[in-house]
Amino acid sequence: MDIALSKEDPAKLKADVLIYATTEDELKVVDTRFEKVLSNVVGSGDFTGEFGKLHMLYPKGIIGSERLLLLGLGKQKELDLERIRRAFATAVQSLSGFSVKSIAVHYLRPRGSEIVDSDIITCILEGLMLGNYRFSKYMTELKEKVKIDLHKVIIVGRAWKNIHQLEEVAEQVGIVCENVNFTRDLVNESGNITHPGMLENLTKHFASKHGFKLKVLHKDELTKLGLNLLLAVGRGSVYEPRLIIIEYNGDPKSREKIALVGKGITFDSGGLNLKPSGHIETMRLDMAGAATCLGVLRTAEQLRLRKNLVAILPTCENMIGPDAYKPGDIIKSYSGKTVEIANTDAEGRLVLADAITYAKKYYGPKIILDYATLTGSVVGTFGTFVTGLFTNDETLAEKIFSSGQRTFERVWRLPLYEEYREEIKSDIADLKNCTEDRYAGAITAAAFLEAFVDKTRWAHFDIAGSAWFEKQKFYIPKGGTGAGVRLTIELLKNL
Ligand code: BES
Ligand code: ZN
Ligand code: ZN
Hints:
about 500 residues; alpha/beta; 6-stranded mixed β-sheet; 15 helices; 20 strands; about 20% strand; binds ligand BES; binds zinc ion
């Protein structure tokens, strides 16, 4: 998508629609260039600038654009970055079905506002680009009607002094949003299409396109090395497991690496502890952690971030089959620790444990960040609006928290106390993969991962709630949300 900034007179711009966004406060000081079109509407009281309210006009011959869409931003004192995202998402969604390919945006920073121009531009673009998303590839009839085919956005700011810097920001936001939508697409993709081999092919395609270093370990190598937890989880499926290792080296002078580990269960049936109806239907989402890592890696490369990243993606399908792993099995992990399988549906922590060990053995990363749709428990705790955060590092906790606030991909930290570590000790092995009572399920799952991380600086994102929405909300669509991509890019810039 083409993104441009302009200092031109917005009335002269020729776009399919010009969005005129204004707070209630500013509506009274209507821009003189629009006076002709606006005075009647404002005078009638039909448009008051109330938050999220829209009013469409067709002022042919008066302004350069085909349509003028008035967008209310509400009270100036209540305006914040999230409200800007939400308002612009509402605006773009109101256009679905229209033949609009280009949008111009007229939005003056309110006088006295503390919000800076670069943030305003960021949130306008996020609202438009993330709000205009639908997983529509399988719709044969309504495809064109459910979103607009947006090719160009021009944002106008007549008073901008540092337009070149702002242009750079805008370009970066465009890249980030495209990758959030890429992550959403990958999570939403049909479960009969997504399997470990498909993820391998996809990463091969990126590797050759973007110059990533790629290594994919197949069943025989995994067996030779002893990634037995990953192998065990994958044994019930016709598709063989893979460990996908993909590197972006944006800072070749440094030897420091950050490992991104992503849960890549392409379908989680629960295994022999089969999930019941009502819980199984959406389980193609269980590779969202891996999808987030890929989204982050692609963004980092396109932004040329000066960081060395290695994404380690354990991927397999948790199914039932003659050779499926069973409750009561004891399996020796890649780390050497033995694990009692208390429940085959607690598979995410198993594949992550081996991937974390691999990350440590081969890359000795400075930091490990892992992303996983790990527990139903975190959904019970936070619902879908907050990601569960676990970390053994205070500085990391603070940086992640503030990145979450800035991007509105909010996280909340849960504790890793000694008592929880006790809970996952087994009578017949070193560890068990879940407790009988399931109390504090998100925490005991994280404590299990911690046993494999040991002393490395680490953060675990339980995105089981935030990676998937049951219904669309503002700029977050129903289905895969792309959770974690924007937060992580913001975090990486500050690490
Ligand atoms: N993939 C699920 C977690 C999940 C639940 C993700 C709901 C998204 C929405 C995970 O593998 C799982 O099944 N966890 C179990 C663990 C339990 C058996 C200890 C859970 O949370 O119920
Ligand atoms: Zn499961
Ligand atoms: Zn799972």
